[in-house]
Write a structure and sequence with these properties.
alpha+beta; five-stranded antiparallel β-sheet; 8 helices
């Protein structure tokens, strides 16, 4: 069977080798400054900037171009409080019963705990949902590579939020079914990650950790 599809010209700017390296280095130097923040200022943020960042995330590639994602922006204090309470309930079980000692030891250098005040303090929460399947004409439609697709979109989103001047955190309280319930999302949407967004508190500190050098993560063959 032959499938017909339409095309448009690619818009692409090819630059010099020196400019390519300059751009790559500039991005690397900027994104290296991003840190996961757990101490946020309550100051409001321009939602218009959040809109732009989500639009950038929505431009990510996806399996069969299904774009299997929804980004829910939460600013209502009561909803944020409900999310915090539900997340802390799950996290208390995680830290108290579900996590192995090895897991807890791995988390120890980060200073995390079951208490999640940042879920209320941060002026906005972005909850990213993965569409396990689509809906067309009242019927289920298969989506492809949803985990990979949404993961790429979240990477775009984090980079865009950092570039816009925001501090962020990737938070994945497990299980996350409460997010679907609190936010009233349909059955086919599964919570993927919860991202607090805002400005760091004046006294914000982050763990003193390092990153693997390039020689440990890159293999050229």
């Amino acid at each position: 069977m032959t499938h017909r599809f339409t095309t448009v010209p690619l818009v692409f700017e090819r630059v010099s080798e020196a400019e390519t390296i300059r751009r790559a280095r500039a991005f690397r130097e900027e994104i290296e400054k991003r840190r996961s923040v757990r101490h946020f200022a309550p100051d409001p943020i321009p939602i218009g900037a959040i809109d732009e960042c989500i639009a950038a995330a929505g431009s990510a590639p996806s399996g069969a171009n299904r774009q299997p994602w929804t980004f829910v922006v939460v600013t209502d204090p009561e909803v944020k409080r409900a999310i915090r309470e539900a997340a802390e309930e799950e996290e208390r079980l995680n830290y108290g019963e579900r996590m192995t000692e090895e897991w807890l030891q791995a988390l120890a250098p980060l200073g995390t705990s079951s208490e999640k005040p940042f879920l209320e303090t941060a002026p906005a929460l972005i909850v990213v949902f993965r569409h396990a399947y689509g809906e067309e004409g009242g019927k289920h439609v298969k989506n492809y590579y949803t985990m990979e697709s949404v993961g790429i979109a979240v990477g775009f989103l984090l980079a865009a939020l950092h570039r816009a001047g925001f501090a962020t955190l990737t938070h994945t309280p497990s299980p996350m079914g409460f997010l679907q319930r609190i936010l009233g999302r349909p059955e086919n949407e599964k919570a993927f990650v919860l991202i607090p967004v805002g400005y760091p508190a004046a006294d914000c500190v982050v763990p003193d950790i390092g990153r693997k050098p390039l020689g440990e993560i890159e293999i050229v063959v």
